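Is 6-O-phosphono-beta-D-fructofuranose placement plausible here? Inputs below.
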Amino acid sequence: MIAAPRCDRTEAWSALESLFETSASRFDLREAFAVDPHRFETFSFESAGLFADLSKNLIDGSALALLIDLAHACRIEARRDAMFAGGPINTTENRAVLHTALRAPRGSAPHGEEIHEVLDRMLAYVERVRDAEASGIRHVVNIGIGGSDLGPQIVVPALEAYCQRDLQLHFVSNVDGHDIDTALRGLKPSETLFVIASKTFTTQETMSNARIAREWFLANGGIDTRKHFVATTTNIEAAAEFGIETTFGFWDWVGGRYSLWSAIGLPIALAIGERNFRALLAGAHAMDLHFRETPIERNLPILLGLLDVWYRNFHGLTSRSIAPYHQGLRRLPAYLQQLEMESNGKRVDVDGESLPFATSPVIWGEPGTNGQHAYFQMLHQGTEVIPIEFILERAPAHVHADSHRKLLANGLAQAQALMLGKSADEAIKDTVPTASASIDRGVLARHRTFPGNRPSTTFIIDRLTPQALGSLIAMYEHRVFVSGALWNINSFDQWGVELGKALCNDLLPRFDSGDASGLDGSTAGLLKRLRS
Ligand code: F6P
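Reply from A.M.:
I modeled the complex. Tokens:
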């Protein structure tokens, strides 16, 4: 473990507090652009195929300099190096955190031999399955939840343009029987491959769905479970006990929410093929190199992590919204919810001391332009300030150039409107045909005023290739590492999910017995009603 101070115990933190009190809390983006014609260039960064415009954030040179001091004081670079070197930075489980090794070229990171043995074997298997004439497989059903589901769930639709047309991917995660019923509808056992994806191979939802899948397979004439069931797990014995012979393993130093680069990526590889899967890994590795080698001043994940701390702890902002202007990235907000909230939703530091400051923001969002017609109203005129991230693709894979121009114009316009706002004086001059004829013009103008000065970041990807997507996801992983390290929390455990699991195990038999003894009044009442 690298000895490093918690962010709030550094001089840089105190200096940031003073700066915030004296001036930064009144920072105005419109003034900042008016006085600095080079603001866009100063606050734009590019690395590993990802362009990031940070200029519409509530930050100036003084705040940034102090945040960089904070990163140095918290020894961010030494902590980052400890992660890449395989130090046991997941202290509560005494584990290394080495998802970066999964995408490193052979020989350049720890565990290279075992990683590449599984990767090569898995990708050879993938190519055999993708030969539909020979394998007969037309459908792949991935059964997994959390990190064993969400990675493949974002990547497969995002790379739709690269997917094999005659192989359809289905995802089953929820223990709600509707989920598996919907996925299985219309499938034939002889054409279907089930991937049972679970790091532990004990997760209730996944094991329950795996058993249903096996029953369905046998009940509908399936004859060779060995050919039609494959497991991706660290628990090879449990997979064998379940009766699965083809298993692709990974290791306890791969966190579930960081596991899409491991065997958990099998459904991705099945969809996009070996070459594209390797490109996805290469893109993530390119971002790893950027994170490892670029000075803090231009290091995108570090700058974004610092900005996250600036917003959460100084501006007191409680959430961050994700707006991918790409329909293929529709599950990105859900993926980032797990990545950030499961990693940094912690209330004690690595020493177990209660934190006197806030940690993970709420992460949420929808693809643009859909979100605009749902909740953007609140982003523009609500009482909360919510930083938003626009993700734009410059050149799409489709041919609808006019649609794409509209999509991009919408994204830019929203960021512009959030920043510029509209004063009451401007609003009063508008002609508003839909307004009530009887309302006072001044009152109407107040309804139609936008405060502006609402921050956003815009990412531009040239083309959403496997490489670019790998880089984007790795950027988010490292950014979460940075804010977690500044807060001095363990971003790699998830004890918060345990209590609910234990209580569920206690409740399950009560659904049969009706025994409500020892339960609180509400749970007992609800149990009774659900059993009636
Ligand atoms: O319950 C939380 C969690 O452990 C996640 O961290 C993980 O991604 C998910 O459950 C699934 O776990 P597994 O891959 O072991 O089935």
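Short version: The mean pLDDT is 97.
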